[in-house]
Amino acid sequence: MGKLAFALVFTPLLAQAQPGILEPRSTSAPQSSAVPRQNSSPDRSVDYLADGLKALDAKQPAAAEPLLRKAVEADPASVEASFSLALVLGMEGKDVDAIPAYQKVLELRPELYEANLNLGIVLLRDRQPADALVVLKTAADLKPGEFRPQLLLGNALYDTGDYEQAESQFRKAFQLDPKSAPAELALARSLLKQSKLAEAAERYRAAIALDPASKNSLIELGAEYDRLGRTTEAIAIFREFPANEAVSTRLTQLLLDSDNAAAAIPALEAAVKRSPTTKNRLTLADAYKQAGAHAKVLEQIQLAAAADPGNFDVRMAYGRLLRDDHKSSEAIAEFQAASQLQPDSAPALNELAGALILTGRFDEGLAALDRVHVLGKEIPGNIYLRAITLDKLHRTQPALDAYRQFLAVSAGKSPNEEFLARQRARIIGKELGK
Questions:
Q1: Whose CA is closest to 23, among 117, 159, 156, 136?
Q2: pLDDT value at position 13?
């Protein structure tokens, strides 16, 4: 089960005064009637047991352990000594030792409720739910009117993946204690695992009403809605957790995917203010783009590029925005930076060549196209751009060769450019007498 349920379940193991858990005999109180003393026990066993219990009363389990081990060695048939040792081992978190210690107690007295219950708790804590099922079933049968063994048995069923039986068991526990938030929450989770979402939603809300501190558990329901593509329900739940960064991030993405950028922008702006990372700025820029706020898109990309100058994708994005804003000089600087970051990038060289040629820097543009050619990544568009650039420079023979090359490789894929290329090739050919 979830962390909340486990925290509640394991607390009694720490020898606190909780109902339903057998505690060792206190030296200052009469012996528990649940574990009678053995009159035939050797005298030394009684001394070790008494000393061990004194240490336990003083909340010194480390001191109690060796004494109780000696008590068990002196009188292996003593249920009280064996149980007390098992309890101390559990208190110390020595589950590997506590498990066989409790098993020994059950060999001596199989129907001892407290030993069955505590062993089940330790096994659950040790991620052995299948083994825990056996002893917790015994504990639940021994005290069918007790809340705790019913809840624990439900936990074991849940952890073995038997969600239907877990649901039934949690309903029993809840009937015994209708004000138990852990039982209500456990029932909600078992319903969620079975895709019974309508009742699961009711139970999650009821658990939160009983214990407002468990509200974060509602994120589980939102995540399941999200997984199933029930975006409206997921968004509604995720909106309830504005302070949860992970949830807010997912919420904004769902809003963006739903073409609701305007609703996502406030959360994204807050995220950038809280953590101005490149990722957060780019996400905010996407939202601004959807909302048609071009100036704010440019601002965020510019800030991202300034803060993360080694990011190739950001430099390319910023360069394209500048190009589209007809800020060619600034765009060229970004594309040059991008091509330096990734010298083998044909897209960066193509953007650089286009921007250079657009501003009349023809030879530099041709040089960028030459680099694409050397990389073996030339496409028909590169050849056409080379042809018209050479044509502008009145380098007629190279221009004619480029036009003819373009027509050969384009083969009908770019009809408009091919029409212009044929016209210019024919004119240049006449001029050259070819």
A1: 117
A2: 33
